[in-house]
Amino acid sequence: MFTKILIANRGEIACRVIKTARKMGIATVAVYSDADRDAVHVEMADEAVHIGPSPAAQSYLLPEKIIAACKETGAQAVHPGYGFLSERAAFCEALEAEGIVFIGPKPKAIKAMGDKIESKKFANAAKVSTVPGWLGVIENADHAEKIAGEIGYPVMIKASAGGGGKGMRIAWSQSEVRDGFDRARSEAKSSFGDDRVFIEKFVVDPRHIEIQVLADAHGTALYLGERECSIQRRNQKVAEEAPSPFLDAKTRKAMGEQAVALAKAVDYQSAGTVEFIVDAEKNFYFLEMNTRLQVEHPVTELITRIDLVEQMIRVAAGEKLDIKQSDVKLNGWAVESRLYAEDPYRNFLPSIGRLTRYRPPEEGTFGDVVIRNDTGVTEGSEISMFYDPMVAKLCTWAPTRIEAIDAMSEALDSFIVDGIEHNIPFLAALMQHPRWREGRISTGFIAEEYPDGFAPIVPDDDEKAVLAAIATAVELLRRDRLDRLGGRLAPHSGALKRDWVVKIGEDYLKAAILEGMISIPMEIDLSIDGGKALTVTSDWRPGDLIWRGHVGARKVTAQIRPLPNGLRIAWKGMSVTARAMLPRTAELERLMPEKVAPDTSKMLLCPMPGLVVSIAVAEGQEVKVGETLAVVEAMKMENVLRADRDLVVSKLNAKPGDSLAVDAVIMEFA
User: Fold this and answer.
1) Parent domain of 262
2) On the CB side of 372, how many CA atoms lie within 13 Å of its CA?
3) Could you tell me which residue ranges the ATP-grasp domain spans (predicted)?
4) What positions carry a catalytic annotation?
């Protein structure tokens, strides 16, 4: 067994590998760029080596830097994580030439399966069912249009060396092929150093289901069940679960055996994933094989109790798997939510900055529920524009699917993140969505359910009553605390006031205190808008960011953020401003004038912090609706900004190469 390994990666996956290596008694070496100098994985590892500037192309993507770090520290093996160099056969060969072990498959398997074009050809030769498509070299956009027309729309344009949703575009018509081809090639080159793309038929309403395989160098290969990965946005997974609520035992077995046969055909040795698309009739088609550890591997670990990183290390060290296919049992249900640094209310645009607060829910086993959070950040960490926007992977396990989803819902409500925008509101809303809870999903779920983007959820009457009850309880304690401060001229509360008005958003609700007294823990009975009495209990204290308690029969976990003259309550994907007031204050508050937002209709604002890739127009130019104005890159994704109406460009305020903050003015219109 190795005594020291190097992790050629960063962030949460580097931390994940370090944890298992530490458990196995193996010393670890971290590598880091300028942007990651103070990163968590650097602190966790036994040693750390600086490998270059912040851009991945100048640090994490340079094999020679990794090899030099191995030699400097005496690391015997390299775990590549996912992304970066994890599927580069040339990197694997370079390590072998230096006598350093690659913790992953052999170059033969990486070459056969890691390249999406070659993997399709190999699968066809092996008589594996594949999606119709063009696997040859695509010369230019004209060639792409011709191929797409022959295959039939819609088509998927995909980077050959791609992954993580990068370099992927769906084209529904000829007009979309050329731009999709150019964008996919550009993203592929910047993210993977390889601009080759291929085109295949896009299966409408498919499920994305993948099989985890594990194989050693001694002829043993097995599958560890499946993962349902259909909740995607821009072809990037958002939430996953294991097992799939769609598959039956027969289909699961057929997919698993096919995945194992493919792995054996390329002499696969490590953990790997065979991805399939599955239609409504449970017909499945080979999509690709990822010759590395998947981002979503924790859900498989939770239902099988098999540490995949440990198995990868043992296989790379030449050990034989001590697991047989008959030993693999799928126990319970696991759900994973990917926490991204992106703003769900601005079409999920990337967000960067410092984590002024980062307090995930407590990890561990709580009754029948397991909570796990894989992350590479801590409070004070900087979310950089140079890398993927994923901040953490929150996972829950429970005996049943609904129990796992409910546990995830509560865990998300307990996950505190400040300083950046993030997608927790969307994830929390997803956990309540009827279609998701019923398992009626496809890769088009987000586009179908949120066609105009994700908007703040409007609470119904029952939910408003819960929110109003929380706001009232918080205000009672706040006023009581003020009354107890020494040196005040006179308490402004005095005896407990029974009548209140709570403003939730723009609605005013009457709240009447029926029974109880102000205390910690609190127990009061109140009525909202003349409704039935609700008993509110909680041990919340002023200053706590999480309000836990009961409102009536409902168990509630909500986040509390103080605002001037009120607070913000986040609960189950809802985020509302709330203010509990005495009736006279509410009467006067209604008379306050509303602040009018400035007019930005004649400006193109940068929707996220990012780098200007190109400006497609000139001053004085007339543009038509839908025409490209500029391209802004953030976190390895290129975002095309288009005209929403016919315009005339009057002034350009930015140029290619500029780094812009969110809402910076890129150009102005006459």
Assistant:
1) 121-131+205-329
2) 21
3) 120-317
4) 288
